[in-house]
């Protein structure tokens, strides 16, 4: 009798658990998958559909089926701080990564010994452990997350992706590598989760990141919602000590052969920082190699899209593509002025494409709204129904109403600081300070930043500089973060 009574008491509880589980499963199914693809040093004009001769069928497809953003910025004109910002939704000056985590000595031909390298800043520096990144925000609502490619936010175990919220990681941990040896200036750099590995040494790394990303999609499609982050190192120059290799981008021959042959592969440089003379890639060879690396990356993106198609979840997946900063080397940033490392538009305005038809993002559209990578964290959290941290300040906002064409962009201003290179945009006005160069520019009529209006519009210049000073004061008053800040 008691046993039956207990059984009767358990049934409502069991039913409640079952209903809760069903509700959770339905809610998870409604959450979109996320595929975030970031290229490295890709030029603003380097999309096949823009007509400069580069071959990018996958990116062109994303543009046809999604929305291309023409007024999209990153928060810093080079790798490490830009990547920290897109994952945290915070300015580099706020999250603590406001310069590169890298060693300078190899730039001048120095090869570290293992013991020497182990205590350099490139080895021991990393993003402050208090910073919260996208996968950690998505995890409480059931997302499985993976990252395959370039991490660049710390090499020690406590800084690695699986210590920060990712479930799986395969890639390299610093700013650049040799595409085949996976070494940075002779130092092995590939890691799986928390363990160094050289298992795949000799295989072109874009192929490896493609392999891991497609595997992840195959394993997790139609199960839990997923966040897949694929930060390629293509088309960044090789980080090899040999000047011939380092002066260009490594790419497989079959992709080089897709472009016209060059007259001369190398040249002798009489002035070179490694010492003279040095054999370097010619400008034509560097341009071809750069394009080949982009096309190889594009082929990897094709495989990811094909897997999403095969699993019939492409339209349920948010696909976002952009470059971490402006192009360099063989890149084409036209019509913008400048390149990677500079606060001219060519260093900070980058190509960006968003595809999410089930989220109302229009196909074949061009969106000129003022937007940035700082918007990623709040936008992805919004799409996933995840809660944002309440104890830290974010510098972005939910961009979906803007991408759907429902509202104008809430972003009215943005600021940049790379050492003594400064930039500020307030509405259409852009102030740049690049050493002795710079000025005030009207981006609506002068996207090339050719006509300095500093003298003819002094009050506007004063206003923009005042906004910049206010922003800088806000950043300095923020709770300090390592590794650069003194606190």
Summarize the entry for a quick read.
The chain is of the alpha/beta class and 487 residues long. Helices cover 32% and strands 18% of the residues.
Q: How are strands sequenced across the largest beta sheet? A: 9-8-5-4-10-1-13-14-2-15
- Please give the radius of gyration in angstroms: 23 Å
User: Looking at the chains present, what oligomeric state does this protein adopt?
Assistant: single chain
Q: Based on CA inertia axes, which overall geometry fits?
A: globular
Give the proportion of residues in helices: 25-40%
What does this molecule look like?
The protein is of the alpha/beta class. 32% of the residues lie in helices and 18% in strands. The protein folds into two domains: 1-30; 32-413, Alkaline Phosphatase, subunit A. The protein has 15 helices and 20 strands. β8 and β9 (195-196) form a beta hairpin. It is globular, with a radius of gyration of 23 Å.
